[in-house]
Design goal:
Elements (H helix, E strand, L loop, with lengths): L3 E6 L4 H4 L10 H9 L1 E5 L3 H9 L11 H5 L5 E12 L2 E5 L7 H11 L9 E4 L5 E4 L6 E2 L3 H4 L10 E2 L2 H16 L2 H8 L7 E5 L13 E4 L2 H9 L4 E2 L12 E6 L9 H21 L5 E6 L2 E7 L10
Parallel strand pairs: 1-12, 1-13, 10-11, 10-12
Antiparallel strand pairs: 2-14, 3-4, 3-6, 3-9, 5-6, 7-8, 13-14
Length: 313
């Protein structure tokens, strides 16, 4: 008889689990699953975790092949708008919640496009927040994925390789041009962060693994792109109940836990609606294995047999 196996990705939980002070807010059934499971440390972010869940080969380079995933016929890099913040002797990069309008995106691209002419590059907006730099050939450089740089100091993530100096010079020139932009002056006046830099990333080839999952669920654009690429059925309006599981391998991506807003209450809701039913389903062998994948922390794998190991509390 075919088994039912579930992998549940839980973004945001790492920040709670890795602080001992939070031990008291871990609810009953989540605590049971964690204590009975086999744990494997794995410090990768949610984007890389999802890519590897669908990739034919583990992605170990510092970049993630976003362009290949989105448009496999393009010779291009992502050149996404971001905000650089000077913090003492380092530059911190932020790329989320910038609230860029379509008009701002188009105008800023027009201002910096001449800087790419010598590189044979054409910059266009895929969306207001995602820009594409089409090139005649890709530079001989190793880039770093934006999702893994955001919120960090950029020093150790800058492009590395034979053309490093040219591309870092280009990056600096873009910053100077954006700094002087009237659009950014208006954004600052309106209490918005300036778009004072871009980030090159997204190179490499993505080859999807066939038949990786029976079905996936989750409200994520990246998850949908990966599922479509691998021809995997996806339910975006997720029904996270064990009754929705058929035989086979299933991947669920939960919404990110907001650690700034009532963590204990969020976890208790998840315990009542998600962890408790899954625990009972695994304990009664309706689900053969449950793997909790916690980005930037590790994997907890629970089998039906593990549920009955009374010596593990």
């Amino acid at each position: 008889m075919a088994k039912t196996e579930l992998t549940l990705v839980l973004p945001g939980l790492a920040a709670i689990l890795e602080q001992k002070i939070n031990a008291s807010i871990i609810p009953t059934y989540l605590a049971k699953i964690l204590s009975k499971s086999e744990f494997k440390k794995q410090s990768i972010g949610v984007s890389r975790l999802l890519f590897n869940s669908f990739s034919a080969n583990a992605l170990t380079e510092s970049d993630l092949p976003m362009v290949s995933l989105e448009m496999s016929n393009k010779i291009a890099l992502r050149a996404d708008p971001c905000y650089l913040h000077a913090d003492r002797d380092r530059l911190l990069l932020f790329s989320d919640m910038l609230d860029i309008t379509k008009e701002e995106s188009t105008a800023l691209i027009a201002e910096i496009q001449p800087l790419f002419d010598d590189f044979g590059g054409v910059l266009t907006p895929s969306t207001a927040n995602n820009w594409l730099l089409e090139l005649q050939s890709l530079p001989d450089l190793n880039f770093s994925a934006l999702s893994e740089v955001s919120g960090q100091s950029v020093d150790s993530y800058l492009p590395k390789g034979k053309e490093q100096q040219d591309w870092i010079r280009l990056w600096n020139e873009v910053q100077m041009k954006l700094y002087a932009s009237e659009i950014n002056q208006r954004r600052t006046e309106n209490n918005k962060l300036p778009i004072n830099s871009i980030w090159f990333w997204g190179a490499g080839h993505f080859e999807a693994k066939t038949a990786a999952w029976t079905k996936v669920q989750g409200n994520s654009l990246l998850l949908k792109q990966l599922a479509d690429k691998s021809i995997t059925p996806i339910e975006c309006n997720a029904d996270f109940t064990h009754s929705s599981l058929s035989a086979g391998k299933h991947l669920w991506l939960a919404d990110e836990i907001n650690i700034d807003e009532a963590c204990a209450e969020q976890l208790q809701v998840l315990d009542n609606t998600l962890f408790q039913p899954l625990w009972h389903a695994c304990r009664t062998a309706k689900i053969a294995t449950i793997t909790l994948q916690i980005p930037n922390h590790g994997d907890y794998k629970l089998s039906s047999l593990d549920c009955w190991k009374f010596w593990k509390t």
